[in-house]
Structure formats: C-alpha cells, structure tokens
Amino acid sequence: MNNEIKVWLSDSSSKTPEQLAAMTPTQLAGIVIFFDGDFSDIGYSMIGTAKVEFDLVPPDQMIALKIDALQRDITTVKAAAQQKVAELEEKLQSLLAITNTMEG
C-alpha cells in the first residue's frame, strides 16, 4: 500500500529545523507522528509529508499479535489491581489495629 500522510512534531520537541533536516529517516521516525488528521489543536506542528509504504501481515498473524497484546494488558491490569488491593488491605488492617487498641 502506498499513501502520503502528514508528519507531525510534538510541541515538546526542542529540535530546530536544521537539526531535523540533518537526521536520517530512521531517526526522524522515532520522534515524529505520522497521522493524516490535524494535530495542531493539541500543540503539534506539521513539518512535512511522507510517502508511507507497508505490507500488512497475514490475518492469522494479526490476530495472534492482538492476542499477545491483550494477554500482556491483562497481566499488567491484574498486577496493578493486586497492588491496589494490597494497599487497601494494609489500610484496613491499620484501622482495625487502632480499634482493637482502643477497645483493649
């Protein structure tokens, strides 16, 4: 697939036009966003356009990659939830200890 798409640079970037011009395409790809919409309302500057060419992976591979990503997300969410439960249980135990001290 071939497509021309807008290239956006974040407002937090301190790169000058000269620095951007001196960068390789690989270096630029790491600091810009390729998006055909308008990011100017959130502080991004359009710095050019790019002709993007890519090959889609086969559908079964797309599904496998999505499954892997979802499994990683599930693991991350479970870990965060377990940490939050542990924090809440610790607060609960602290309060129970206070009430036990007051009763005793």
Please provide a written account of the structure.
The mean pLDDT is 92. This protein starts with a strand and ends with a helix. It has 104 residues and is α+β, with helices and mostly antiparallel strands. The protein contains 3 helices and 3 strands. It is elongated.
Average the pLDDT over all residues and give the rounded result: 92
Gyration radius, rounded: 25 Å
Helix coverage percent of residues? 40-55%
Number of helical regions: 3
Strand fraction: 15-25%
- What letter string, H or E per element, gives the SSE order? EHHEEH
Structural class comes to alpha+beta
Largest sheet: 3 strands, antiparallel
So what's the overall shape? Answer: elongated
Strand tally is 3
Which strand order spans the largest sheet, edge to edge or round the barrel?
2-1-3
Uncertain residue ranges: none
**Distance N to C terminus:** 75 Å
